[in-house]
Amino acid sequence: MTPLVVRDLRCEFRIDGVWREAVAGISFTLAARETLALVGESGCGKSVTAMSVMGLIRPPVGRVASGEVILEGQDIAGLAEPALEKLRGARMAMIFQEPMTALNPVMTVGDQVAESLIIHRGLSHAAAMERARALFEEVKIPSAATRLRDYPHQFSGGMRQRVMIAIALACEPAVLLADEPTTALDVTIQAQVLGLLADAQRARGMAMLFITHNLGVVAQIADRVAVMYAGQIVEEGGVAEIFAAPAHPYTRALFAAIPRLSASAQALQAIPGRVPPLNAMPPGCRFQARCPLAGPGCEAPQNLRPLAGAHAVRCHNA
After folding, report:
1. For the chain, which has fewer Cβ within 10 Å, the N-terminal or C-terminal residue?
2. Is 77 left (phi over 0), alpha (psi -120 to 50) or beta?
3. In the β-sheet with 224-229, what is the strand arrangement from edge to edge?
4. Confidence grade of residue 309 (pLDDT, cut at 50, 70, 90)
5. Where on the phi/psi map is residue 88: left (φ > 0), alpha (ψ -120 to 50), or beta?
6. Are 195 and 219 in contact (CB under 8 A)?
7. 24/240 Cα distance (integer angstroms)
8. CB half-sphere exposure, 166, CA atoms < 13 A
């Protein structure tokens, strides 16, 4: 059974009394032991996609307007909050972008790991704390038994991220959503965290949605890539396919913006303009105002169309 299938997911936010689409018909699948990287600029809808899958976008501010989120064969998109609470942390888990704000500052980190085990697994506090110690050792937190009694502010950024990973892995979820878990870390700690996630995925057979804007991380950890822009997936395919031959102008612009260590002197490339706001989305291609290939045909809505193999692109010029 495929752990996660998302079909035509649409999420909206209320702006000045009008519902505006932030995620516009996202579809993807995640197989066991597979990592799908969701990439794009800030404001493209990556985190909103993950939170919509988790059922964390709720009225009155936001809502999942339509679509299916099928977790292990069950459509959870329309479930009530009590039913979702039984799944979050148990069958699907999320590593949030900023651990300092995601962790509770007035609870010890050990209690925060143990909490999900007590709720979802029915363990006693003592048994849950012992399992928390084992998880701390798995994610390579030194002096695990002692650090269980510490608070989040007593940990470094990298160690707080390891605590978040331990919480996410506590109940052996089938699907892990990782929202830019390495963004605020230096490259050495980043590599260690990526290694921990890869090891945990292999050991548990999890499916993982990895959200990032770092294409170097994508090359290291992902099997497939979905490039997101203004609430839509504009290109998707295998890592090797997209890195060898990016087809969408936005994907090519992202690659062009990466500094090259092989060049002694180079002009840094930037994508002109910005992601359009939710209340000013263009009617056709959402990238056309920033695209060097914009021309006739771009004023019409673009659909994902297949290229070779599993490679697909949302552009009539590609």
Report:
1. N
2. alpha
3. 92-95, 175-179, 207-212, 35-39, 224-229, 232-238, 312-313, 305-306
4. confident
5. beta
6. no
7. 26
8. 31
